[in-house]
Amino acid sequence: MRLLAKAGAEFPHVVEFASEGRKFQDTLDQVLIEAWVDFGGDANPLMAALPAVLKVPVNNDETGLLLRVFLAEAEAARCGSGTALDRLAEVLVIRILRIQIETGATMPGLIAGLSDPKLSRAIVAMHNAPGRAWRNQDLASIGGMSLSRFADAFRITLGETPQAYLRRWRLTLARQDISKGDRVGAVARRYGYVSSAALAHAFKRQYGRKPTAFRRTQTA
Questions:
Q1: pLDDT tens per residue across span 54-64
Q2: What does the CA dihedral 130, 133, 134, 138 come to, rounded to 10 degrees?
Q3: How buried is residue 207: exposed, middle or buried, by Cβ count under 10 Å (0-12/13-18/19+)?
């Protein structure tokens, strides 16, 4: 994904956030920041939930101050600036996503789920322990909901069942780990698959190729 900040009538006027391949609405004066953020591919639930273009107005709030620090660090180009800019960009992206979550979403997806106080507790639990053998009843209890109410609310709000979401989240994490060179067997155990073959089957169904073939393309 790309992150752009632009100067308009006030600095900074807006942050524009759009995934790779989508066009930006270049309506303001000057591009101040451009950064690439890797979310592990379009299969990431967060990627699927984001709008085509996300604009966040900033003035003298905390996000605006963070942008000023980012620009000052970039202009100074001191020792360690590259690492500092990477971390500042990460914090900036997190703040932008939090604003989107707090604002909510009209379309089903992860943003809408995280905006719901009860569903968000279950989603965060899955994110924190993706390898656990989660049952819907466990997740419903975490959210403080009955099983039937939880299952219905999750499906309506996120557009898929809790177990479908969990499978997709595990595969997103598995894809990231395999791209870094982790062994398939270790990744399978990490994310709750009964065997390497089970992960390979699910991985090919999701991404169209086996984990080993995918890893070769990443290291070539």
A1: 677 666 678 77
A2: -130
A3: middle
